[in-house]
């Protein structure tokens, strides 16, 4: 609902003297055509509801684009999206509440076949958590290149298509002693993944990449 409000106001609210849906800096930006349109609907709503005197007077757009109007980077519309951002950050807590930290006993258990909301919040909170660990280690500090996961990442389409075509064949699959055994399935999946990482590594070395 919040995001719908933000999208509707940002792209459909008529702003006097400005193009509807304007996202630019105003001033000398856009060849100086809309000097007082800084921030589009976001700037307009703040100036209308809060008044010029209650807005931040030295926005960063002033430096590069020589804007004259006040513009608040912590304005009303931006606050809507900062709430959405905080929401993304608390997905782990939402999962804790829905699942009661249990495998199957919660109010809404994690269920991939239903794409249950707890499945979505749990998986995306894991993704955020992994990004939170990897971003400083790989991108900022350069302590790890991301290998060997880097190689399948460079050929993700090829690995995906290859898996779809060959997943019924050895060495990606073989007859299991006990088809119900999680342990045997896990071993098979780890081996299949390792083989694809190895294939991706060889293709990387040979500079073969599939892209769209
Ligand atoms: C922009 O606003 C200033 C006052 O803040 C005014 O003098 C100027 O005429 C306005 N420019 C346009 C194009 O509306």
TrEMBL record:
<keyword id="KW-0472">Membrane</keyword>
<dbReference type="GO" id="GO:0016740">
    <property type="term" value="F:transferase activity"/>
</dbReference>
<dbReference type="GO" id="GO:0005765">
    <property type="term" value="C:lysosomal membrane"/>
</dbReference>
<feature type="transmembrane region" description="Helical">
    <location>
        <begin position="76"/>
        <end position="98"/>
    </location>
</feature>
<dbReference type="GO" id="GO:0007041">
    <property type="term" value="P:lysosomal transport"/>
</dbReference>
<keyword id="KW-0808">Transferase</keyword>
<feature type="transmembrane region" description="Helical">
    <location>
        <begin position="119"/>
        <end position="138"/>
    </location>
</feature>
<feature type="transmembrane region" description="Helical">
    <location>
        <begin position="186"/>
        <end position="204"/>
    </location>
</feature>
<keyword id="KW-1133">Transmembrane helix</keyword>
<keyword id="KW-0812">Transmembrane</keyword>
<feature type="signal peptide">
    <location>
        <begin position="1"/>
        <end position="17"/>
    </location>
</feature>
<keyword id="KW-0732">Signal</keyword>
<protein>
    <submittedName>
        <fullName>Heparan-alpha-glucosaminide N-acetyltransferase</fullName>
    </submittedName>
</protein>
């Amino acid at each position: 609902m919040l995001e719908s409000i933000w999208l509707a106001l940002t792209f459909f609210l008529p702003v006097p003297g400005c193009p509807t849906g304007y996202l630019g800096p105003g001033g000398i930006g856009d060849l100086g055509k809309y000097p007082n349109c800084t921030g589009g609907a976001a700037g307009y709503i703040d100036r209308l509801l809060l008044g010029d005197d209650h807005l931040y007077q030295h926005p960063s757009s002033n430096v590069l684009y020589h804007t004259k109007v006040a513009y608040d980077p912590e304005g009303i519309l931006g606050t809507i999206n900062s709430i959405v951002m905080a929401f993304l950050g608390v997905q782990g807590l939402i999962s804790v509440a829905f699942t009661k930290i249990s495998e199957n006993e919660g109010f809404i258990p994690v269920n991939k076949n239903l794409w249950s909301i707890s499945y979505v919040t749990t998986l995306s909170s894991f993704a955020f958590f992994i990004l939170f660990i990897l971003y400083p280690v790989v991108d900022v500090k350069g302590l790890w290149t991301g290998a060997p996961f880097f190689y399948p990442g460079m050929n993700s389409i090829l690995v995906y298509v290859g898996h779809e075509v060959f997943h019924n064949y050895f060495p990606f699959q073989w007859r299991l002693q006990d088809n119900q055994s999680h342990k045997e399935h896990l071993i098979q999946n780890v081996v299949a993944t390792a083989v694809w990482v190895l294939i991706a590594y060889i293709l990387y070395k040979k500079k073969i990449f599939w892209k769209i």
